[in-house]
Design a protein that fits this description.
Length: 220
């Protein structure tokens, strides 16, 4: 009796599985169409993110240009004061220049990393758009031949490849976004750790030395 019950239970499970498989097969085109739609939505969002990155880069570029102009102005002023033997004024200008050069170096590093991130993201988006075009073509072909069971089986295999590939692409995008969000903190942390390990001078001592170097640079 127990064996009969187990066989009936097994048959019911098999029947449920067959029904579910039939539902999936019957809706294969709809499923693939929805997958493509979701990927296209993600692509549009990524393009907007890229546009924001480009806008940030352009804004930072304007700040960099303004800083470079200030640096050149300070350099000219230092030369003038040294020529007029105004050491005190030259010292103050050199102090200001040291601050400007520090900020300029930091912002230049940020700009370079933003530019690199922009290029990487742009390449990912190009690859994504190319892959999406492939699956859109496949979807059109499948719709034209949806009555053919062989075509349906082939489409199912393509759908699996599609899901795997875009899962990897999404993971890549997430990693890139995470790296971009934290690069400022990482840069600062690396500088602090390196200074500590190398036993370098304190920031105040470094500042004084930089001022001396600037004065020496324009005296020569």
């Amino acid at each position: 009796m127990m064996q009969l019950i187990q066989k009936i239970s097994t048959a019911m499970r098999g029947g449920t599985r067959e029904v579910l498989e039939d539902v999936v097969d019957a809706n294969s085109l709809r499923i693939l169409s929805q997958e493509i739609y979701e990927c296209e939505t993600s692509l549009r969002e990524s393009k907007e993110h890229l546009a924001n990155v480009v806008a940030q880069k352009l804004s930072l570029k304007r700040k960099l240009d303004a800083l470079k102009d200030k640096v050149e102005s300070k350099e000219a002023a230092i030369k003038q004061q040294l020529a007029q033997k105004n050491g005190t004024v030259a010292m103050q200008l050199a102090n200001d220049l040291a601050d400007l050069e520090t900020v300029l170096k930091q912002q230049q590093s940020q700009y370079d990393q933003l530019q690199s991130y922009e290029q990487n993201l742009l390449q990912v988006l190009k690859n994504t758009a190319h892959t999406l075009g492939h699956y859109r073509s496949e979807l059109g072909m499948a719709r034209a031949t949806q009555e053919a069971q062989k075509s349906m089986g082939k489409l199912s295999g393509h759908r699996n490849v599609h899901s795997d590939n875009f899962s990897k692409l999404q993971d890549s995008l997430d990693r890139i976004r995470s790296r971009q969000d934290g690069f400022n903190d990482k840069m600062q942390a690396m500088q602090e750790v390196e200074a500590h390990l190398n036993g370098e001078a304190t920031p105040q001592q470094q500042k004084k030395q930089k001022v001396k170097d600037i004065l020496a640079r324009y005296k020569s």
